[in-house]
Specification:
Radius of gyration: 28 Å
Strand order of the largest sheet: 1-6
Helix content: 55-70%
Shape: elongated
Oligomer: single chain
Number of strands: 6
């Protein structure tokens, strides 16, 4: 290996592998310096989790619009978040050449939308829950302050909370519904999902993936050591 100043450095391509050999000519695995950087199997796992992200995102939109199945919305949202977590984890072992700036910006939108959108819906839900509890407490107090024959009636707490929730939600104005953290949640999660959806259609889905690069040390002095004489 030669540099701009015509200095010559020796690269030891015999990086450590599990069997004592080298993965330099192995298209399915990159294992060097006692560390993994690429495994073909993880590409397919990464692809599967990306499909889970894509499909669960669509299911979230459908269940939000189709009120009959609204109770499935949060479960598809959880699948979306967990699939994104595992998609990110598996991507750590399909490293060949790094990522272009446009992809990094797209991933920033993915994770930023997911993070802020998730926090937004948690804060929104906390506010609604507080109003529901206050409403339920007021109704419960009204029952206890009625006549003695009414006091002996059993109160179904689940029904009381559900009725209070429906009353709180139905009392919200159009403005309160449209300009809210819930809307922020929906918009940001759509932004997050849209980045993945775009890559699903733009990226190669053929399954042809190889581990085709091999890491070496740079011939420079770093905090990890002096690598100017040899590159191993």
């Amino acid at each position: 290996m030669s540099t701009s100043d015509n200095s010559t450095y020796v690269i030891d391509w015999n990086g450590h592998s599990e069997d004592g050999g080298s993965t330099l000519f192995d298209p399915y695995l990159t294992y060097s310096f006692d560390k993994y950087s690429c495994m073909v199997e993880f590409y397919f796992a990464h692809l599967v989790f990306n499909y889970f992200v894509f499909l669960s995102g669509i299911a979230c939109f459908i269940t939000r619009i189709w009120v009959r199945y609204i109770h499935f919305h949060k479960w598809f949202g959880r699948i979306y978040i967990l699939s994104m977590l595992w998609s990110t984890s598996t991507s750590l072992l399909i490293n060949n050449t790094g990522l272009p700036l446009a992809t990094l910006i797209s991933f920033a939108a993915v994770m930023g939308g997911l993070t802020i959108g998730w926090i937004a819906i948690l804060v929104y839900k906390l506010g609604v829950d507080n109003k529901v509890m206050a409403e339920a407490q007021e109704r419960l107090m009204n029952v206890t302050n009625t006549k003695d024959d009414a006091k002996n009636q059993k109160v179904n707490l689940s029904e009381l909370l559900e009725e209070s929730k429906q009353h709180v939600l139905s009392s919200m104005s159009w403005k309160d519904r449209f300009i809210s953290l819930k809307t922020v949640h929906g918009v940001l999660f759509f932004v997050s999902w849209f980045q993945i959806a775009g890559r699903m259609f733009a990226s190669d889905q053929s399954g042809n993936f190889d581990c085709y690069t091999y890491p070496v040390y740079k011939p420079i002095v770093t905090t990890e050591g002096d690598f100017t004489d040899t590159v191993t």
